[in-house]
Amino acid sequence: MRQIDNSKAFDDAARDLLTLRDFMRWAMSAFTRHGVHYGHGTDNALDEAAYLVLQALDLPADLSGEWLDARLTGTERTRLAELLRQRCIERIPTAYLVGKAWFAGLEFHADRRALIPRSPFGELIQQGFAPWVEAKRVHAILDLCTGSGCIALACAHYLPEAKVDAVDLSFEALELARLNREKLGLTEQVELLLGDLFAPVAGRRYDLIVSNPPYVDARDMATLPPEYWHEPRMALEAGEDGLDIVRRILREAPQHLEPEGVLIVEVGNSQEHVEHTWPDVPFTWLSFEHGEDGVFLLTREQLVEYAGHFES
User: Fold this and answer.
1) What DSSP state is assigned to residue 231?
2) Cis peptide upstream of residue 117 (ω within 30 degrees of 0)
3) pLDDT value of residue 291
4) What pTM was computed for the model?
5) Closest Cα partner for 121 from 135, 103, 139?
6) What phi-psi label fits residue 104: left (phi over 0), alpha (psi between -120 and 50 degrees) or beta?
7) pLDDT at residue 2, rounded to an integer
8) Chain center to CA of 105
9) Angle at 163 between CA 297 and CA 101, to 5 degrees
10) SS3 helix, strand, coil % of the chain, rounded to 5?
11) Burial 276-306, CB ≥16 within 10 A → b, else e
12) Pick from 85, 161, 132: which is nearest to 263 by CA?
């Protein structure tokens, strides 16, 4: 039976632990005892502990090992113990606790107004979408369901010649995206638009449309680890098969793509539903160095050719 720390254990930690190394080691054990879920930027206890401890103290992620035995002040120890309590007991993701996350090598503000930045899109963007897209031919990009703005802003950073429109239905999410746009100095290059999918960009056409829309199906929503319930529900759930938003994107995208334009959409675990629902559509499923999957690509020409399949 898994041992669960009570509040006293965290009070004891604030009193007894003295160094960065002490807190990282103790955090790893506490994460294991509480069965915390990794999936918001890390995939193991050591990286999660380092993420929380170093960022909470405004220390660099690549801090030299010689500093791990530096003694902490009483105030710092109390703060770390409380954050660890929230991570273990309340299951709040570390990115929300420390207020920051990384995506495509860039630092973003993170809070509960939007999903924590995480997506295989980061790898695609850093590669300039090669070999699927010729970056120098991309002059206009649309990011649907932008949330924190991480995908749109990373696109603007790595494709500096492109103008980027970023759309979201949540005013609160766009306020967070605005903070990130200012942080990265991309105000002139990225336009943030409030509205439902393509509605705010009527009449506009793009060389590339990207989206990480809500795609969690009903079965997965019912079994999500507690960490995910701190994120906006509307950014996760998308009907019985997870394709409520994807269907609309597939139907409407062709009229917003330039000739030879490309649509790339992340659907995660709902890939099986995509393949089952449209077995005759030639989706290109992209591969990633770190093993993620669930991202498809279709050209404008394919979307037009198979438009009839997306009507039902």
Assistant:
1) S
2) no
3) 63
4) 0.93
5) 103
6) left
7) 47
8) 13
9) 70
10) 45, 15, 40
11) ebbeebebeebeeeeebebbbbbbbebbeeb
12) 132
How far is CA 19 from each of CA 22, 23, 58, 95, 224, rounded to the nearest angstrom? 5, 6, 15, 22, 34
Q: Count of CB atoms within 10 A of residue 105's CB?
A: 11
Apex 164 CA angle, 162 and 169, nearest 5: 170
The pLDDT assigned to 4 comes to 53
- Contact in structure between 140 and 206 (CB atoms under 8 Å): yes
What averages of pLDDT result for each successive group of 10 residues across the chain (312 residues)? 65 92 96 94 93 95 88 96 97 97 96 95 94 93 98 97 97 98 97 97 97 94 95 94 96 96 95 95 91 90 95 77
User: What are the angstrom distances between the C-alpha of 219 and each of 48, 222, 240, 307?
Assistant: 27, 5, 8, 28
Give residue 1's pLDDT: 35
CB contact at 8 A, 205 and 139: no
CATH topology of domain 104-310: Rossmann fold (3.40.50)
Secondary structure letter of residue 70 according to DSSP: P
Tell me how far apart the alpha carbons of residues 110 and 94 are, in angstroms, rounded to a whole number: 10
d(CA 103, CA 88): 24
Residues 6+ apart with CB under 8 A from 194: 167, 168, 169, 171, 174, 200
Locate 124 and state its tokens.
């695609």
CB 43 within 8 A of CB 16: no
Domain map (residue ranges) of the chain: 7-98, 104-310
Strand blocks (E) in the chain: 100-103, 106-109, 140-144, 163-168, 190-194, 206-211, 257-266, 284-285, 295-299
* Other CB atoms within 10 Å distance of the CB of residue 8: 8
- Is the sign of the CA dihedral 287, 284, 118, 37 positive or negative? negative
Non-local CB neighbours of 8 within 8 Å, separated by 6+ positions? none
Position 3 scores a pLDDT of: 45
Q: Which residues contact 143 (CB under 8 A, 6 or more apart)?
A: 149, 151, 152, 155, 164, 165, 166, 167, 209, 210, 211
Two tokens, residue 244: 């409520």
